[in-house]
UniProtKB/TrEMBL annotation:
Name of the protein this chain belongs to: Acyl-CoA dehydrogenase
Start and end residues of each Acyl-CoA oxidase/dehydrogenase middle domain: 130-226
Cofactor(s) needed for function: FAD
UniProt cross-references to PROSITE patterns, sorted A to Z: ACYL_COA_DH_2
Domain Acyl-CoA dehydrogenase/oxidase N-terminal residues, every copy: 15-126
Gene Ontology molecular function terms on file: acyl-CoA dehydrogenase activity; flavin adenine dinucleotide binding
Pfam families: Acyl-CoA_dh_1 (PF00441), Acyl-CoA_dh_M (PF02770), Acyl-CoA_dh_N (PF02771)
UniProt organism field: Pontixanthobacter aestiaquae
Amino acid sequence: MPAINVAQPEFMEDEEISIFADAVGKFYDQHAPEKRVLEWRAAGQVEREFWNEAGSAGLLGVSVPEEYGGHGGDFRHDMVVIDQQAHHGVEGFAASLHNTIILPYLVRHGTEEQKKKYLPKLVTGDLVSAIAMTEPGVGSDLQSITTTALKDGNGYRINGAKTYISNGQTADFIIVVAKTDPNERAKGISLMLLETEGAEGFQRGKKLDKIGLDASDTSELFFDDVFVPAENVLGGEEGKGFYQLMGELPQERLIIAMQSMTGIEKALEVTLEFVKERKAFGQTIWDFQNTQFVLADLAARGTAARVFVNHCIAQHLEGKLDVPTACMAKHMVTELQGEVVDKCLQFHGGAGYINDYPIARMFRDSRITRIFGGSNEVMKMVIARSL
């Protein structure tokens, strides 16, 4: 029996979802075996062609409407892609970023022309996406960004620098968060759609050397008078960018909570397997009462977290998930994940400090979850305002 044994929620009791999950799992087994993932880790990024393979298999744009080349699914299908990826140990492939963070901006806020132009290519993997928010001096306080997109003839010129951009080395399509009115804060922000091929003045900086997520490329991006046509303002209207960003935050933070929840389950799974085999002082590590008590406590709290995450997913599927609740999920589950992987690593002893063991990579990879998508300090600020 798994350490966290919560009944499958009603919203997942669908034969079509089960069939899709099996297909996604088989795709990962066939196209992302351990040897290939090791190569990605060594290279610091996923092969570009893997995106096209995933697109051909139906893993991209699963919830994009069929009229725009998508598969007409819903958030549950996106969940399956994320969950199967985690359980099959496929590191680096930013499907959650592409499917559940970036594509929804176009689906929900794009003009008809923008949807028809970009969504089909994003579904096939011909375009890989990124979103450029963070700047060298600006993190969670997006209203303080300094990157500008100022009018020039029939378009805009983007100037500025971004950093910590996931898919930065790979992306062909970037949503750039910029000020179209530098004198305003929230009302001055617009989201600019940029295709990188042939974009004069656009430059990718170095691939950043992170403490975790080895197979995921994260980069600096530079914009020097990069021209984008007027029709590339998301939604076709200036000054809506901040509100478009805020509208997507509940889903983004729920996604992080979901990924961390799967991480908790995986950490407990590999640790239970290890402690029941590893011996010390004539007995298994599991036989020590301390091991049982610590893992029992983590399993109990993990079970409560899973129930809460499932509740949030159900709320989101009904369009009822509010920002404070999403922040609670992101804060609570990522903090618990940090504690779980730390205590699970300790049970591995010296092996836990060796990257060949999954728990070591989980320890490194999980640290970012308390930072990205809004730091957990920001999560607490948002929660406090709702009390």
